[in-house]
Amino acid sequence: MPELPEVETIRQRLIKGFGDRPSILNQTISKASLLLGSTLANANPDYFQGILPGNRVISVGRRAKFLILNLTETSLVFHLRMSGDLFMESISQPDEHPYRYLQHDRLRMDFNSGWRLVFNDIRKFGRVWLTTSPESLFSDLGPEPFDENLTPELFHKRLKAKSRLLKPLLLDQSFIAGVGNIYSDEALFLAKLHPLRKSDSLSLEDAGRLLDAIRAVLSKGIDQKGASIDWVYRGGEFQNYFQVYQQKDQPCPLCGTPIQKTKVGQRGTHFCPNCQKYS
């Protein structure tokens, strides 16, 4: 599943353009084609395809792992789930690469310019919402990791209010939004905290160190255009900087102890038993 850095990378590419592909900003929709009905979460397909033509893309936002396309009359909110991807391509020359299968396109939006936006999703779990109030979809989300109002003191208070294992808590989008399996493992390693530590056992110093670590690994992920570890995301380099994630039995970069893998809350979890002592 894409996490905050991967989603942010897609957002930036849509805004700035990528390679020979133009920015999506100010593109006017000429046609919307919903190719898989279940992709649309909250509207009638005919209404959806009928209301979009004529709308212009005003801005592209992000909230946690959601992408938000703000149009002149409405908004589209995308959640990529396990395997979704969003990209621009030429209408006359569809994108061709080893991981692109046209039969997995779930939504296409053609623009007057001759370009189109494609929502491609192999596993069919991705969803799109048509809404005039995107914020209504985010009421259950916790704070963004980079929110300036999320101070070490507030983060510590939120940790103390729970009595949960650290790894599942970091994956809980109602606690902190946008962190997933990769970046939680990397952040806990950087903070030298065991994934099975109870959240209410952390000191203020521990909490501040963890918050700094979350922000550091997410920033590094964004700088490296996310992690390319499966067939969906291309061009990311953060996988070359993994310290513990997918490094089972490899020597810890700090102490040389073999990295261990366990399951925490049904999720594969990587850590160094020496640097991340359970205490």
Summarize the structure.
The protein has 279 residues and is of the alpha+beta class. 24% of the residues lie in helices and 22% in strands. It has six helices and ten strands, in the order αβαβββββββααααββ.
Radius of gyration: 20 Å
CATH superfamily of the largest domain: MutM-like, N-terminal
Q: Give a count of the beta strands, DSSP E runs of length 2 or more.
A: 10
Number of helices: 6
Helix residue percentage: 10-25%
Query: Which residues form runs of ≥5 with pLDDT under 50?
Result: none
Question: How would you sum up the global shape?
Answer: elongated
Strand order of the largest sheet: 1-6-7-5
Compute the separation of the termini in Å: 31 Å
Number of domains: 2
User: What structural category arises from helix and sheet content?
Assistant: alpha+beta
Average of pLDDT: 93
Reading the helices and strands in chain order gives HEHEEEEEEEHHHHEE
CATH architecture call of the largest domain: Alpha-Beta Barrel
How much of the sequence is in beta strands?
Answer: 15-25%
Task: Could you tell me the CATH topology label of the largest domain.
Answer: N-terminal domain of MutM-like DNA repair proteins
CATH class of the largest domain: Alpha Beta
Main sheet record: 4 strands, antiparallel
